[in-house]
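Honest question from a wet-lab person: if I give you the sequences of every part of a complex, can you actually get the arrangement of the whole thing, not just the pieces? Trying it with mine:
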Amino acid sequence: MSAKAVSCTIKSPVALQIGDASVNVTSIQEISIKNYYTVYLTVCLQRREDGSAKWVTCLRNYCLMSNPNAEAGSHDYFSIYRQQSFLLYLGFEMLLEPDNVTTGRLFCYCYLKDSERGVPVWLSPLTPVEEPLDLNGLPDPETVSSSIQQMWALTEIIQASQTAASIGRFDVEGSYDVKLLSHP
Amino acid sequence: MLDESAELSVSITQIVQRLKGTHLHSQLEKQAKECLHKPEIKLETLKDDVRRLLKASGWERKLQNAVYRELHILPPPRHPRAPPEHTKEPLAYMRKAQVNWEKRILKSLNSMCTELGIPLARKRPVPEQNELTNKWNEMGTDEPDLSKFRPVYAPKDFLEVLVGLKNPNNERSEDLTVRSHWGLIQVSLNVRDIPQTREMYPELGLTYGQLGIDDHTHVPPDLFESEHIHIGKKVVSEHDSAAAQQYSRQGCPTGLRAQLWSLILNTTDDPEAITHYEQLKARVIHHDLLVDNLIYKDVKLTASNDDYYFVFEDYLYQVLLCFSRDTAVLEHFNYNCATPPKSCIQSKSGSEQCAVVYPPNGVIPFHGFSMYVAPLCFLYNEPSKLYSVFREMYIRYFFRLHSVSSHPSGIVSLCLQFERLLQTHLPQLFYHLREIGAQPLRIAFKWIVRAFSGYLSTDQLLLLWDRILGYDSLEIVAVLAAAVFAFRAENLMEVTSLASAEAVLADLSTLKVMPLLQIFLFATSV
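Yes, you can. This is the full assembly:
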């Protein structure tokens, strides 16, 4: 059986410029992404070391969708943390310290629907588009990561307390003259 | 993978928050205070002594059961950046489909109310309130004119919505490949195949005793039944929810089932539950809702026509009318991606517009809804008890059968699992039925949506629902649907039309569910 060529589109990547271009040094504590049908993720960071810029892989082939042919994980939120102790929400440890970082690249691997055709299509790096990572208004990452568990517990309490009280009554001052229904 | 200690601390905080301010909380405080008067309490070991006494008097067990219940309905853990609707349903296209479906239902309800000139809600005049109070126990004797009311939707309308679900990221080519969907459901969710289902349901295996198989008259009771009943009595006396849930995987003895289900669902005979039910009854007396007529119509069309359930007609009204007015049911929208319908009403002072939910519990009944309650009437004859058990079963399981979601116990997953099981293990049958225009899901859907209520004989249905509770999952319903097709495969291979296929599968009242499930799961070569 002869192989059949399949047409595909290769999209240009979007490079993430981290921090101010004039200030070279940035430590990354967390990368958060919302997935859309990416199966595997590889994260590369460009570090400035001894005056030269070097690309290093800090996370390789992390699986976001356990079954590429099913929906699980396809729309989920993920976080990547630098420290082992904060593996949260499908987050995972970076292979090396993400310090002195200037630019990042996320390589997203997807599968074609019919796995008989096998080879995964992946985005290859072309000319990067400059896009600064917005850290404005965020507190110092060091203090945040050390108190993150407590913050989350607090957030959950606040959210839960909004719905915990059951009022019971459905009428308003004895009146329940419902006229027309609308979708909220 | 989730960090377990972080997830645990969040769950603990949530559960503590939910239990704070409940009746159980105040009872525990009261009991702890009473413990202080006891001579065996010492100041140096106060905390441990009080704990010990609470454990000995059974209060620790009650707390354990309450925590266990909360775990069943705890929403899944949230990523801090995920909005709440994402946690309820991560797939955007399913959320959209649910919203569109809800809008259609609302439109239908609004037009019904406009056409008939009947308000969605009205306060009953006092004479009418008195009349209803007097005939509360015999509402079935009423023969109101329901001809102008029509059900808001029937299961087959909902099936069309599910068939139309498409993943926008998936470009469907026209040619059939190995992985094409032969069935009606066109989305790819992770559903269990037979080997995985065997792992999930090991107690249904051939080496375990089962009620529904090993309690047959020709099997000596000392082989399994006597011992199982003995253990069941122990579980009931221990008042342990988790143990009851594990126990019911092998079936509940008829004499113990009511208590066991009540334990599993943590419904109590507290005065609090009875008061709550009486409050709901008072609300039914005071306000008349349009959905009441839908309930009347549904009961008259389904349960009243059923040989097993017509005797319970009055109970069904007493439960369902109260259910519509129970705002506590709104809590389940914390983990259900459906949205309750709303309306704006003017406050009496006229100063402001307030948003209210309609009906008060946010659930619009559809054709066949009363069949979720009917089988429970065999277990509970006390209305407040019957009500509590039904409500808990609805907010844990039944709501998933009529809303669009990707949850493993959701109707979409169940339908897909049914089709996949059939396609994998009876491909010839599936292909044949498809060729004659009898897609298997078109026949099985009505069974799945009602969790087989009204299709199986009651004793068999209760054995099935034992396992739904025991495994905390509706997947068994999908597996049974496939097992039924497997059982009647020979006859189905002979038919040449949808109508004849439906005729072969019209009467399930003679089926024995446990042998069918066991054969399909454990005696099928994979």
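Two things worth pointing out. Chain A has a mean pLDDT of 65. The beta strands of chain A are 16-18, 30-34, 40-49, 52-63, 77-81, 101-110, 121-122, 132-133.
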